[in-house]
Amino acid sequence: MPAGDALELAHPQCQAWVNGTEGGFYHLGNALLSLGYMGGSGPFGALYIFSFLLLAFLCQALGGWASGCGTGTLAWGVLQVALCVLQLVHVLLRLWWEVVDACGNCVLSLDEEEAYALEGTTPIDRLSFLLSGRIRVSMEGQFLHYIFPFQFLDSPEWESLRSTEEGSFQVTLTAETDCRYVSWQRPKLQALLGQDRYLARLFSVMLGSDIADKLYSLNQRLYVKSGIRLDIRLPGMHHALASSEERDSEQDQDGVQDPDPTHQPDPMRSPLPDDSSNHDEGSSQPLGHTPSGTLPPHSQRGRAPLAPTDTPEL
């Protein structure tokens, strides 16, 4: 008897289909398996695929264990779950070593009352992440807020400059206690983020959340009569301040000054001049011209600034 005929005769014939359905774990496992194979390429795609495969094989293993007679299904499910866990660990470690290699594979430290950055002196050329300790942020001797572990030290400065620009810190960062942190040099980290889109998105989300936390902690402390004082380290403030300084310097060069600096108009008087003053001043100034100093700076500009440039003092 041929081997094929013997195998066909040995296999039991299906007399009738089972009316019942498979358990819920079976259907859930197959659904997760289908979703898992929809992942893309790259590290992010690998994390997506193996995460869904892990859950799918776990459901199949639980289904085999619940059936009571699915020993083989249980064994294969456990084996496939272990393989997916190893793959996830491998992908995460590869991403981790890329980030660690960019910071030089070393952890830096700050002693108590040691300065990490000085206002107007320290250049913005790195990005640091605090591991332990507490950092005090101040400006012109005034306390702003604290930086706690697992927060970036200089996320606002990192976001305030473009990749080709240079700048310096607008605040002073001092260690309140003994601190430990990791630091990435700006060119090296930018090169890494340019190569890995997943890491770039991850850093973007973390930096955005960190800046929001700093803004909330700052706004809870700093209030003035005109409203809430904005953090000068926020993205866009550096460019707004620089543009304001350029406009002011251009106005000084054009000679737009008050002819009599000691003369200050009476705030209680009507803004409309009387006839005598109108005849005296009409020959020296054109119609509609307002002397410098009578209006706030934002009213003298041709357009509204993108961000507040006249920050009130504490």
TrEMBL record:
POPDC1-3 domain span: 23-95
Residue numbers spanned by region Disordered: 242-314
MF (Gene Ontology): cAMP binding
The entry's keywords: Membrane, Transmembrane, Transmembrane helix
Residue stretches of biased makeup (Polar residues): 283-293
GO CC terms, sorted: sarcolemma
Compartments, as annotated in UniProt: Membrane
Topology relative to the membrane: Multi-pass membrane protein
The name this protein goes by in its record: POPDC1-3 domain-containing protein
Organism: Aldrovandia affinis
